[in-house]
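Figure caption, in words: inputs first, then the predicted bound structure.
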Amino acid sequence: MTLIVAGVDGSVSALAAVEYAAADAARRNAALRIVHVRERWTGLMPTRLTEIEHSYGQEVLVTAERLARAREPGIETATDSATGDVVTWLKEEADKADAIVIGSRGMGGFAGLLLGSVGQGLAGHVPGPVVVVREPALVTYGRILVGYDGTEEADVALDFAFAEAGRRGAGLKVVFSWQPPPFSSVGTMYDNLIHTVYEERTTYVEERFTAQRERWPEVPADYAHVYGHPVNLLCGESATADLAVVGSRGLNPFGALALGSVGHGLLHHARCPVAVVTAA
Ligand SMILES: Nc1ncnc2c1ncn2[C@@H]1O[C@H](COP(=O)(O)OP(=O)(O)OP(=O)(O)O)[C@@H](O)[C@H]1O
Ligand SMILES: [Mg+2]
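Bound structure (magnesium ion present):
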């Protein structure tokens, strides 16, 4: 059975993640597993504190499950708690799940922090999609946004975005953005050449998109190549999207999964939930 995992820590952001995960589970006919990890820490009177910590954790799970059931009464839900390092545990959970959903922020961090350590530790570091939610969705736009640059990894992100749009009856907005190389300011005599490279690249990406697109004929999709930085463009577009999808960088030369600058930028600045998809 398809499984969606949501990580909770008692924060508002985590509850927004639970709402997202419940809706996702309902759309996919999946089960929802809500997980709370108790971080080890030492302090005075460990026994009394352990009790309090335990009941806090239970309360966090009960509240989250209640919310999920209220939102989607039809889904199967379960809760689980563990003790240890949050990212390590959630990575294990993610390995067994079809997607993991977390909040952008949690109970810790400092005012002004845009993405907590859990999002940083998971996005691009697990094989399945990681969805990071900032706040509950109050409006539905019927639009999924995806950054596409014609790479193999972007194909995986595009595929996920098409599947999401299909499940939601939404349309897809596909954006390829391009900016001139840094040397173009000193090499103006090469303007024509740079332009030719640009034309070649955009033609290639659009053709590749068109080929992929044929596999999802029922999903309305709008493709645009735009001049500018992908993070600025995608973040701007994200204000009217239900989800933004990007590929992580995939396997880096050292064999570790990692996150590229577009995923990194979106996770910090997007105005809708962000799914980071890895071509593992
Ligand atoms: N103990 C936990 N158990 C399960 N999920 C957690 C736990 N802590 C955080 N999460 C998940 O990760 C999301 C982001 O929290 P995170 O801890 O990364 O941010 P933070 O608390 O603001 O900053 P910090 O990185 O300093 O802890 C939460 O909304 C929640 O979904
Ligand atoms: Mg935290």
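The chain has two domains: 3-133, 143-277.
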